[in-house]
Task: structure prediction
Amino acid sequence: MEAVTKQFRKRNAILAYLQSTTEHPSAEMVFAGLKPQIPDLSLGTVYRNLNLFRKQGLASCVATVNGVERFDGNTNPHVHFICNECDAVIDLMEMQIPATLTSTAESCSGGQVADCQLSFTGKCRSCVRVNQKGGETA
Amino acid sequence: MEAVTKQFRKRNAILAYLQSTTEHPSAEMVFAGLKPQIPDLSLGTVYRNLNLFRKQGLASCVATVNGVERFDGNTNPHVHFICNECDAVIDLMEMQIPATLTSTAESCSGGQVADCQLSFTGKCRSCVRVNQKGGETA
DNA sequence: AATATAAATAAGAATCATTCTTATATAGGA
DNA sequence: TCCTATATAAGAATGATTCTTATTTATATT
Result:
């Protein structure tokens, strides 16, 4: 049948994928996630559209973990936790970024602030658990 | 004469360079800065030692700007401003990272927080100035 | 001093995430 | 239909970083 237009089908799928997950995927992760449903998707298309979304403000790169950029389709500024063990990037939605911070940064820097990133690194809940269960043999 | 030991001479020079600047240099920038005084310095040595310092807690990567890691020899947690135009990474030393943030993050995440990064992106003071001087011809 | 061992380094190769190039396909307008 | 724009696939190119190998240097031991 194929009555529906094909235009932007892949672009839309990439954006939808990004907005449907909180795992803050890399380009490869988006590609791997969509490939089963879109067998003729190419990695270059993922990269190209992610960069487009970034320019349009529909997505942003929230971290670079082990040399790999991690994207977020949630454009509301929020806090992240990055696990040094399993490379997970986790939202801390309960936390607020103090509103005064940005204006303070603007006056301190003398420049124009466009964005604010607040993130914590360490060992995430599951990795803490795993280590406890195993027990330390030191 | 060359009475002084040569051991760690390059390692020390790299650490000293990192600690003497606030420009948050990349490995290439450290290499370029030291090459005149140490003509037989190799880029691999810079990378290797920067990673060593990172493991030892003597330095950290505070940002990845345009795919390039930027290092900091100042181990006191502090705030950074990253310019999207000139790629400068600037300290905002006057700003404090609210002490409560880290403990809140730890309880919210359920994990163990090792570090906190707070940074602002936008247009730095000099880039704002340049654009004003030139005037917009739109 | 001679030897052995271990760490530091230079040089360049290898890796790998990302970007770029080219050709093809598709949509919309004249 | 013809023309122009954009989207895409495929794979090549780029470039930051890491790895490998051989060499050098320091230290400990004789």
Summary: Chain B touches chain A at residues 64, 79, 81, 83-84, 90, 92, 94-95, 98, 101-102, 104-106, 108-125, 127-128 (CB under 8 Å). The beta strands of chain B are 60-65, 68-72, 79-83, 89-92, 112-123.
